[in-house]
Structures are given as structure tokens and as C-alpha cells.
Design brief:
The protein is α/β, with parallel strands linked by helices. It folds into 2 domains: 183 residues, Rossmann fold (3-Layer(aba) Sandwich); 127 residues, Rossmann fold (3-Layer(aba) Sandwich). Helices cover 36% and strands 20% of the residues. It contains 12 helices and 14 strands. The mean pLDDT is 97.
Length: 325
């Protein structure tokens, strides 16, 4: 075990996969010589060479298309898109080909590839560098979508995504790359896709979040506990497949829930979680489920990020609403 950041955990997981699985290749803009825009692939090209860690042109559609061909041909490509806003040119390949090949070929072919996408705000980059469009990928049948918030989950979920027989969109919260640390095993390991994590058990209120918003969720829960509110904290981790059983069990126990995400409110993935809770927990709810989200606007410039991103104060205000109902 050693204490590492989320970025270091991802780098280590990629290194283990490249060393232990001959069919894994890493591909993307600047992933080789410079080690990626956030240095997640730092040092991998030196260890495994340009045939395994491949620098590509600035062409996301080409990255996804070539990666798809590699995957159908028997490799396990790990593609990097640099920023979520940069992934949009690759939608055609991802939605029409990557996600559909198992169904289209009647299971004769699959696309075992991972699409790594740094996403989210809080780094002073604005717009295309700070967007949270996870709902688009979740709305595409044939894709799995996972979002780690801790270094250990990042390493384990990435290895599971690489080993998965189908395509996985692996979202990496930029704001957490180097702001969280924890003990992570030095050897390779997997964390199951499709399982949420109950980080703290409670009986009065459930706070549900994923990715970078787990930081605010944890801080809000700590403040509520100090106020005497026994707060449960649930890290979704896997958006598709969604661990509905854990969500239902938590909310049936507490009777109150808040869903937190930084994507815009309208048709954000939180709406799906709320719908699942309302359908399955209606007679257990003591108050309507509250959402604390980003606003229905384009992501703002640096000086206004704090207004856009959900804050601990906004979560506490939502908690006051559900607790007083």
C-alpha cells in the first residue's frame, strides 16, 4: 500500500494493465511524449514504447473511430479525450458504432474499449474545459459510464473497465486529480462496475452524489452530523449500470434524500435517480427529493465558477428543506 493521488492511481492502473495485458494500448492527443494534458499517462511511453502508447492527431472522431476498429479487431484500447467538451466531435463514432456493435452484429463482435474523459469545473478553465455532460453518455444504450471520486476507486474501476467486454466511458473529475489522497494497493486490483459505495451510514437523511461533488457532499454531511442529523452519504460511482438497490435501501431507511451533481439541472442524471427513488420509495419518503445542481447555463468564466458549482451551503439549505417538511 502507498498513499497516492487520484491522478497517480490512474497512472499506476494503466501501467499495470499495459504490463499484464498484451492487448491493451493507450491512445490520444499528447498521451505519449508529454504524458497527457493532466500527466495521467506520464512515463508510460518510455516504459512501453510508441506502439503501446500512441500519440494521435488532434481529431477526436479519428481517435474514437480507430479505437473502435482496434477493439473489434481484438485489442483493448484506452482512449483519452482530454476534456469532455472536446469529446463531442467523437459522438458519431461513439453513439453510432462503438455503442451499437454488439447489437448490430448479433453478439458476433464487441468493442472492449475505454474512453477516458476528464470532466467538470473548479479549475478556472471555463466552457469546453469544464463541462459535465455525463447524461448524454448515460442516455446512449450500449455504453457503461463510471465516475470515481477516490484514488482507490479510480484504480480499481479503471482496471474493471479495461477488462470489460463492452465499451466503458470513464469520467475523471479534474478537480480531484491531485486534491485527494489515500492508501491504494501497489498491485493491480478491480472494483466492480455497477456497485455504489455507502461512505457513511445514517438514519435521518441520504446525500447522493458522484465525482467531484463528493467533496461537497462529505463536507455537508459532516456539518449536518455536528448539528445532530445522522446523515448517510452514498457515492454512486457507476451511473450505468446504476446500483438502484443501494439507492432504494438507503432512502427507505432515511426517508429523505438529496441528489447533488454539477451538470445543469434540466435532464441531468440526478433526475433519473430521483425518478427511481420516487417510483420505489414513495411510501417511505417523508419529503420530496431535493436536487442541488449546476444551473441551466453555459459553464461560466473563472470568477463565477463558485456561483455555478453546487456548494456546501446550497446542500445544507436543501437539507433544511427536506428535514423541515
Amino acid at each position: 500500500m502507498s498513499v497516492v493521488t487520484l491522478a497517480q492511481a490512474l497512472n499506476r492502473s494503466l501501467e499495470h494493465a499495459l504490463a499484464e495485458m498484451d492487448d491493451v494500448v493507450v491512445m490520444g492527443e499528447d498521451v505519449g511524449r508529454t504524458g497527457g494534458v493532466f500527466r495521467i499517462t506520464d512515463g508510460l511511453a518510455d516504459k512501453f514504447g510508441p506502439d503501446r502508447v500512441i500519440d494521435t492527431p488532434v481529431a477526436e472522431s479519428g481517435i474514437a473511430g480507430v479505437g473502435f476498429g482496434m477493439a473489434v479487431g481484438g485489442l483493448r484500447p484506452v482512449l483519452e479525450m482530454q476534456f469532455m467538451g472536446f469529446s463531442y466531435p467523437a459522438f458519431d463514432q461513439i453513439i453510432n458504432h462503438v455503442a451499437r456493435i454488439r447489437h448490430r452484429s448479433r453478439h458476433r463482435f464487441t468493442a472492449p474499449l475505454v474512453i477516458r474523459i476528464p470532466y467538470g469545473g473548479g479549475i478556472g478553465a471555463a466552457e469546453h474545459h469544464s463541462e459535465s455532460a455525463e447524461a448524454i453518455y448515460c442516455h446512449t444504450p450500449g455504453l457503461k459510464v463510471v465516475v470515481p471520486s477516490r484514488p482507490g476507486d479510480a484504480a480499481g474501476l479503471l482496471r474493471s473497465a479495461i477488462e470489460d467486454p463492452d465499451p466503458v466511458v470513464f469520467l475523471e473529475p479534474i478537480r480531484l486529480y491531485r486534491s485527494v489522497k489515500e492508501d491504494v494497493p501497489d498491485t493491480s486490483f478491480t472494483t466492480p462496475i455497477g456497485a455504489a459505495s455507502v461512505e457513511r451510514e445514517g438514519s435521518d437523511l441520504t446525500i447522493i452524489a458522484w465525482g467531484a461533488m463528493m467533496k461537497e457532499a462529505r463536507e455537508a454531511a459532516a456539518a449536518l452530523v455536528e448539528q445532530g442529523v445522522d446523515t448517510e452519504v452514498l457515492d454512486v460511482r457507476s451511473l450505468v449500470p446504476l446500483d438502484v438497490e443501494s439507492l432504494v435501501a438507503s432512502v427507505q431507511k432515511t426517508g429523505r434524500a438529496i441528489v447533488v451533481h454539477e451538470a445543469p439541472r434540466t435532464v441531468g442524471f440526478g433526475a433519473e435517480i430521483v425518478a427511481q427513488i420516487q417510483q420505489r420509495c414513495l411510501y417511505h419518503l417523508q419529503a420530496p427529493v431535493e436536487r442541488v445542481t449546476g444551473w441551466d447555463t453555459i459553464f461560466p468564466l473563472k470568477r463565477s465558477e463558485h456561483v455555478y458549482l453546487p456548494s456546501v451551503e446550497r446542500i445544507l439549505a436543501a437539507a433544511n428543506t427536506v428535514l423541515s417538511a
